[in-house]
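From the thread on structure requests for the teaching lab: each student submitted one protein with a one-line request. Submission from student K.M.:

"Model C-terminal of Roc COR-B domain-containing protein from Corchorus olitorius, tokens only."
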Amino acid sequence: MASNQKFRDLEWVLQAFHNESLNLQSISFYLSQPVSGCFQETETSMNINISSDSLEYFSLILLLLGPAKNSLLSLRNLEFHCVEWESQQVQNLGELLDSNLNIKQLVFRQNRFDADCLSEFSDILARNGAIKEVMFSESHIGTVGATFLASALTLNDTLEELQIWEDSIGSKGAEELSKMIEANSMLKLLTIFDSSSITATPLISAVLARNRAMEVHVWSGERGDKSSKVVEFLPENSTLRIYRIDISGACRVACALGLNSTVTSFDMTGVRLKSRWAKEFRWVLEQNQTLKEVTLTKTCLKDKGIVYVAAGLFKNRHLERLHLDGNWFSGVGVEHLLCPLSRFSALQCQANITLRSLTFGGGRTKIGRDGLAAILQMLTSNETLTRLAIVDDQSMRPDDFFRIFKSLEKNASLRCLSLQGCKGVRGERVLQAIMETLQINPWIEDIDLARTPLHNAGKADAIYQRLGQNGKTELEPENDLLKDMPLTEPKSCRVFFCGQEYAGKTTLCNSISQNFSSSKLPYIEQVRTLVNPVEQAVRTVGMKIKTFKDEDTKISIWNLAGQHEFYSLHDLMFPGHGSASFFLIISSLFRKPSNREPKTSMEIEEDLQYWLRFIVSNSKRAVQQCMLPNVAVVLTHHDKVNQTSQNLQATVNSIQKLRDKFNGYVDFYPTVFTVDARSSASVSKLTHHIRKTCKTVLQRVPRVYQLCNDLIQVLSDWRSENYNKPALKWKEFAELCQVKVPSLRIRSRHDNKEKIEMRRRAVATCLHHIGEVIYFDELGFLILDCEWFCGEILGQLIKLEVRRQSSAENGFISRKELEKILRGSLQSQIPGMGSKVFENLEANDIVHLHNKIMALKNQHGATYSLEKYLISININGIHIRIELGGQLGYYIDILACSTKNLTETLRLIHQLIIPAIQSLCHGVTLIENIMRPECVQNLVPPRYRKSQFVPLQQLKQALLSVPAESMYDYQHTWDSVSDSGRPILRAGFDLARDLLSDDDFREVLHRRYHDLYNLAQELQVPPEENPDEAENSLANTVDNVKVDPSFGGIAKGVETVLQRLKIIEQEIRDLKQEIQGLRYYEHRLLIQLHRKVNYLVNFNVQIEGRKVPNMFYFVRTENYSRRLVTTIVSGMTALRLHMLCEYRREMHVVEDQVGCEIMHIDNTAIKCLAPYMTKFMKLVTFALKIGAHLAAGMGNLIPDLSREVAHLGESSLMYGAAGAVAAGAAGTAAMGRINGIRNRNRNTGDIQQDLQAAQQWVVDFLRDRRCSTGKDIADKFGLWRVRYRDDGHIAWICRRHMAIRANEIIEVPL
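Reply posted by the TA:
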């Protein structure tokens, strides 16, 4: 009964739609029904049945649904069943879809369309921007319908799902849909159920070729009534699965897959393939960079096909898993397949190093003798494969598997071996080989013997037990592999003596040693001073290390060499993060100890500043600083100084200035030690400071690993057992840990080798930081005798004169010749002196270390020349000089000379030179400057170039501060330079466009465009209809051509020069055109700004009858200059209120305006003024930024807008062409069209309300200040009240406008 009450007739439906009494989300039409009527299933869904004799109701209902009605705004889905469409009905449907943009889904089941209806529906779909899903089921649209749908979706950019079920679109329809896919990037789901599987090939090929993230499902029912899937692509997991395809289609898919970047897993299991497809797939393996897994199981590939796959593996660098089981290849195929995974000599590199898992085998795979030999070779030489599966093999015997397991004893990479179903895995001999292998090879984690005779006989349990598979639980991953290593307080501290040569560091160190040498403080190094005098005479000057014992604390003094050639070693010896160490910077008060010529305070400051920069830059390289570097200053040769010397006081002042400069970067000891380095009594206070500071530093630095203390003794014992050998290779160190240190030992095959290796390296690094060893990770050895290494190795390497001993050219030498020189130089010729360097370190290690110190990196394609403080490079026709600024210089000059344009030269410098400098200057901030071109042309000496540069950012800011028409001709002036009255460089100028590259100059233009774009957004400036923009650029440059010494060659050379001049001339025209566009947009936007402000001025004439000006701003006085206030906060003081001249379209700041002082900003003022400041001052601020030169007096008020108004717009460079602002304005206008109707009333009301509050505050404020009459306002603000003759609006304008616009205004005095 209830169902009968819900069933209504069609007249009721028409009336309900007419009265808008229904709120439906889904309507389903069923035509050709026995009885007409409607049935409302739920409150939001309705089924409408229409019989054959009531078809006219169908059109009436569509017509009623067409006009936009409030009750139908919730309608989302329309379904049509058994509809035979006519042209008029399709048009009615189109009107409905055009008027109701909330409809998202259309479903057609068992419909019928003729060609005209399909064409009409195609037009509807092409113009519709709301529908998300269209589905045709058993509607027989065929090839014609598919063609029309394809043409519509080529234009439609909103439809996301298209489904065609139980149809036959044919190969032509599929090709048309594939063309649509190439153009449409919005479609997310495509489902086709076709009578033929041939439709899948063009569809999936288009999706792959265009890298579409589109889910694809293609089904076919050509095998009788049974339907089956043909192709499936799931972009969420990047998996492509092909179930059925012919060979030509497979080749086409392979071609599309070559450059695809959306597929990571490719599965063709069960598809019959041939060598023709494998030939195409070889190209896929060579070109594709995203494919990670390929499954070709049971594809009937034979030897020839496998050869093509193997050829692709030689060049593949991304595939990780390959499955080839169930194919028909033989031992020849196995041999080729494993070739890229094998090495056949120690000098050969493995071709493929990315494949991790390989599976092959099967009943029809005949591995044979050749295949077995290839497997054995691969297992003994491969270093990357982690999983190997040989499944269901019938050809190999038990002896073959015995040999396979024996070869695994030498393999350190394989983790999993699967031999499922292999008939040859049987017998005691094979079982014994497996057990022996597991004892020797600890890295095998899993051996899968399922379905093998050994497993079926129950003999595999012992293997699984050995592997630990029974009851094995997965360990939780550790977040910190070093966390469980116990820590302890460090016991040793290093003191670094830094200073120039002749500073007295060695003498000071000897005097300190005498203070340490007592009965309680044994001097460990005292024996070393008693060596024979011959050795002392020839010992290389360099770094020295002396060690003392203070109770339980070990103190070592590292005397860094002061000679400039040793400076490259200082970075190597710098203490690491958390190291217990501090620094003494030692400087002599005299230039040389042999005379009494004192250093100036500037010279001492320069000495100290170099070492302070060295300490700060190296300490900033640490990822995390636990404490600032501790620094103390020591001045030597104080005994030669007169106590009343003014120079000494100037030196003290310079040191204090350095202390202030480096405050926050180093921990300065407040006392400056002045000592006589020869006197033990004079250095007693310094010795006490060293002892005290060592204990303080040891308490503050992080704790070290407990293993370090254990290893110190282990390494000492090892040296005693190995004839006091000073160096230890990393492999020897690993073996020593395995034997002597239980906590650093690999215990079983389940141990994490990477974890143990990481622990070993962490302990070695910790030993390096505390000064017990010298450890270079990339060189692979530990130095146990630090002083031997610094003196015998580094000291000789750094002073090695390679040029004099070889035929080296341009500062470079071959590796073999360098090794020969090293062998001859490092072996001392004096009896009893040699330390047998090459018995402790190999020549290859020494060469590597030498190159690390000298930073020699040979880059192909360039010619280098190395000299002291100079590197000359000739690369691609560009001559570059890289000069280090003096002995203690903290700047690097890069001089370049080339026939190429400035932009090409600077790009080369930024791509090659600057990154190389930055890689060697970790922790150092580099500031880029532009040198005067005349200094480069004439190679002016560095001492005269110190003032001849301009910071790059400063020059850009200067360009931004000038009008657009002046940017192209802006000049930077240079000061003159003279030496003793002799002129070196005259005063001059260079155009900014000649100093900057095209990229930098355009960056300045784009920043100006960016400001214009932000202003266009604020003003909502509509775009021009037909902007006339010329974007002519010549990208091709003329290559360097050698001129043939003949009349024809000379003519050709002249022609080349003329062509280059034309290119340069065109570039200048383009740049001028871009500046012209910038001027046009500045003018246009400023006019629009004045129009907006004029509207804001006159929107509310009722407030006090416009008795006071409306356009006001605040100024703060700082350092005798006025700064514009862009934001106000409660509590601000000492502000002044100023008024703008309000003359329409010519608003400006009034010069010499007195204004009113505001003593304090309270919360009431904030409430009234804050909205005004954010809405109106935003526009004024942008106007000041882009056009200060157009409004008199504004320029002096501009603050640092990049900081003051960072919230008003992005500061990044956004656009790179003259049309960028037009595009931005167009985008703003488009947003205005979308949100304008909805927000216009609300925004207007907000602005009016905000301005009313602000203007009322101004009225009350001026009344309180007794400035309410016209005379008072004229006195304080220089403004007079006038009325425009044309529109009657009132404004407050300045005296100048009163005079020049007298015929347009009438004065209205108060």
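TA comment: Residues 85 and 114 are 8 Å apart (CA to CA). The chain is about 40% helix and 20% strand.
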